[in-house]
Batch of 3 targets.
Target 1
Amino acid sequence: MTVVVATFYKFVSVEDCLGLQRSLQACCDDLSLQGTILLASEGINATVSGTEAAITQLLDELRSDVRFADLTAKFSTAKEHPFGRMKVKIKREIVTLGQPDANPTAQVGTYVAPAEWNRVISDPDVVLVDARNDYEVNIGTFKGAVNPHTESFRELPDYLTTHLDPQKHPKVAMFCTGGIRCEKATSYLLKQGFQEVYHLQGGILKYLEEVPEPESLWEGECFVFDERVAVRHGLQPGSHELCYACGNPVSEGDRAHPHYQPGISCPHCYADMTPEKQAKQAMRQQQRHLQ
């Protein structure tokens, strides 16, 4: 079986989150879709999987609402559903930055199409910042990008305010997986007085989809938040797997390490694994095999 995986988001005022949650949950259940849709007063953020016809029907349903009429989605395929069930949830933010002044509906950085991205980030005056978390950056990033070494998106503003200065760094370019985090991060930077702020339109996924590998400045794989774990150029499945113990992506090299035990530990978490934790993980691993 091959399923279509669609990711989409939009920053727009949503005042009826509860009613929209109910209608979308019913629609997705009827279409046998799986995945997660987040709703907040600031918009919608989703990754769902299903048949091509079902995905099309969901997007048509959303676009019939004037607020989502211009909604765009990114597509890939998987051999099976990357998600276990369908959840439509209401949150305070569709991507959590914790900075109320960061409002992409009011102001946002300059969008750069994938075809133009190489030119922008090759400018020596541009500071290129990876807006993702440390474990994501570690398996792949753009050549020359700065890693803020954050554990969550909420930590990024602290890094930006302590390491960047509008006077010393007049040009800043940012990127993330699908573009949503950069919408907020560039809005935040503009509020801090930065003048030239750019971000990759459609995120890394759109770049990997559209830019031919021989011309690419991307190095490694891109972490994705589903059971595919990582993708490569052309959005082909990557080589990484997920450590069930700590949630870190593990490479082929990690899986050859003596500290790697499938479902129990990996080189990233082995040092923190007490005998009790290892026994608990071993039991969970056994239960997974019985399912």
Note: The first strand starts at residue 3 and ends at 11.
Target 2
Amino acid sequence: MENISNMSLLSCLVEQTASSIPVVNPANGQTLGFVATHDKLAIENKIQKAKTAQKSWAKTTAKQRADIMQRWYQLLMDNQEDLARIMTLEQGKPLAESRGEVAYGASFLQWFAEEGKRAYGETIPTPLADRRIMTIRQPVGVAAAITPWNFPIAMITRKAAPALAAGCSFVVKPAVQTPLSAYAVAELARQAGLPDDLLVVVTTEDAVMVGELFCQSPDIQKISFTGSTNVGRILMRQSAETVKRVSMELGGNAPFVVFDDADIDLAVKGAIASKFRNAGQTCVCANRFYVHDAVYDEFAEKFAKAVSELKIGDGLEDGVSIGPLIDDKAKEKTQRLLQDAVNEGATIAVGGKALEGQFFEPTILTNVSHTNSIVQEEIFGPIAPLIRFSDEASLIEMANDTIYGLASYFYSKDINRIFRVAEALDYGMVGVNEGVISTEVAPFGGVKQSGIGREGASQGLDEYLNTKYICLGGM
């Protein structure tokens, strides 16, 4: 593996066989190595071991769990450079973004190490003199997760940290494109002292089998999924048979609004950060840009100039801002959406070209209508369609005109408008004069068909705890 000093992080690599899974660098198509594939029986055995391990883990104190998680956090930060290089090699994002994700992912370990100590119960005033009422909070049991390739470390730690802090065990299937980051994080957990079988990574190309197994297993009490809304619907249906608790962080179609009183330079900076981070392959990235008539031309000109200066290339190269798309399928979708938009009357202001390999130029489209197909679909690529609007009421209507409700962004200096619009946007998260809003201390999640539940903050711990009511009689 290229320039990875701590090779123990990649002990997951195996010899190539007919069943092993190749890990490919999207920047150049080269195979980085192979990981084992787990069949249904192997995964069932791992779930059983996780169930046994969880019973002992639940008996430890919150402080004992926190001590291990703090060591795990420190190991991630100590190995930040190696983890970042692994991530860039298998996922493609620029190295600076990978470093940032390692720190972001580690922050959940640090946060929930402490938050686990605050899984408080209650003493409730009783309606009867001879009774006392109280509640305690206990871990749900074995939790399972299916995580995506776009944030291969943070999407695991954001789920595993609260699960483990609550006293659960955790079984995760990472995306087939990015298993190395998952195995490296799990290896550091082991080095931090996490008991065996509490954090289990399973890898397979049979996503359907894993989804059905996780949903149908009576030994798994909770499923957390980050991915498309369509897959989320399937997992929810399959989980109904065992009445399993679910957390779903699904698709998005984030509006990015620039009002006539906005700081245009600040809005351009936020638009670049929100739209083109990870080559536009994030669930919370700006998907459609609504710009007031009065500032449309100024914003479009400054935005286009900033985008034209973004460097495209291998994420390991200095100064690269835009890495490759994850695979050929993603590139083909980006090309299709762009061509459909042009066919419907959009104008390419900058970019618009598919490059060699899996690279695609960051692109701005003008003369886009709210009814265009590219506005109605999650792009998940480096294309920014700009739509004009003239009044706040119509803007709110257009911004909310979607089945999704994950993230939204707007720029304004008017304090009255800020509160009015923030409350009117039908989204789980709103960024006001800020294009990057994710943090471990705030709840992350959506409304409508963008998901159920929250990750991060105190709410993230709640997802892995049951509340038990205890009535003491005969007092």
Note: The chain has a mean pLDDT of 97.
Target 3
Amino acid sequence: MSPSYTLRDSSLLPTKCYVNGAWVDAASGRRFAVENPSTMKEIATCPEFDAADTETAIAHASTAFKAFRDTAPRTRARLLRRWSDLMLENIDDLAYIITIENGKPLADARTEVAYAASFFEWFSEEAARIYGDTITASNRSCRIITLKEPVGVCGLIAPWNFPAAMITRKVGPALAAGCSVVVKAPAEAPFSALALAELAHRAGIPKGVVNIITAAENTVAVGKILTTHPTIKKVSFTGSTPVGKLLMNQASSTIKKLSFELGGNAPFIVFDDADLQVAIRGVIACKFRISGQTCVCANRILVHRSVYDDFLRLLVDEVKKFVVGDGLSETTTHGPLIHGRAVQKVDEHVKDAVAKGARLAHGGHRLPELGPNFFDLTVLADMTPEMRICQEETFGPVAAIFPFDTEEEAIQLANNTEVGLAGYFFSKDVSRCWRVAEALEVGMVGVNTGAISDPAAPFGGVKESGFGREGSKYGVDEYVTTKMVMMGI
């Protein structure tokens, strides 16, 4: 594909919300514009839903839930599998939509579409495997069984960095369990969500089971309805820790079931016995993917002093090979940041580090000749703990390298943060692999790999990175309740 590519199927770029099986505008008629972060050109506009519009969507989801909860698991499985197949059949168009609204290169966008479809496939297989238990009662005249029941209508709030995959990772288990959903699409990148809605319609998902809504200026009001409305029984949110705290506080008013995947500050440790080539591939994969805009990307790269210089040299040599530009260009390896605020934060983090003694090994500046949202891939050396990057998530293309001398020091540095989503380390020592994997205060650990996302893997964090798990066999548990039945005989 090239910048001249046009959608093969224009119906995959709807500009209305999807509620109760129909395409609808906001009752007010208000709309907001969505821009391509690479070109700053308007893609199209979307409805500006408000609280009342959201309540209407919730009401339809509630009606649909009453019937959908009783559908046969195999029926739900076939619906999800058909939805997955339709995504793969339209992978080029879906990738194009991701690239123009998110900025990531087409190759990354295609990878995301396949990854997103894999969640529907995975949970289609889990739908028929939601098991209860039989338990021996203390009173021998009684018998105990447990039933797994769908929690109810779910409010799902998705981020912009993976505008397709973060939705399918939530919707897949919800539908597998028999729930209905109201999905708040990200204002920065809503069209992937709306394209998924179109494919849900084609897949035969019953009306009202999947509802996709959009809002920009009214995002806070819509979020408040989703977290406080008594009909919503479960909220899943992926985003920043401060917003997660706000939503959690709001949800306490009705005691909802929650799963939050929040901010990260991932350590990436390279021990003295690591295979440096493997470690370099790992750090490239998890630091610079979509220009560092992932919650699990390496934020603090801790390298043993004995291999520090070699690692830094190899990393800079690799980074120099990359091409920053418009994601639609065939030569681009890394696209823009999502908006000007993201660029400003990255710029501030780099300047703060340099001012406090960091050495700029590569990059370190904006790329205004490409557009206002571009920042060069950056490598900072000789980092120290008092720099902002050490305690704040950069969410941009900055590899910050910290030296360390001992395993104990590396673990202490890695755990010195209030969040704990992902962590990575590289070592050939099997004993060390077990020690460090258990010592890291994170929800997910990559050992000798920088890629940890898989539909079969439970995804989630500890500390202020949230709670609950997405994906894997544990993902369905977030959308069911356990009912105990005590039966006298």
Note: The chain has two domains: 10-262+465-486, 266-447.
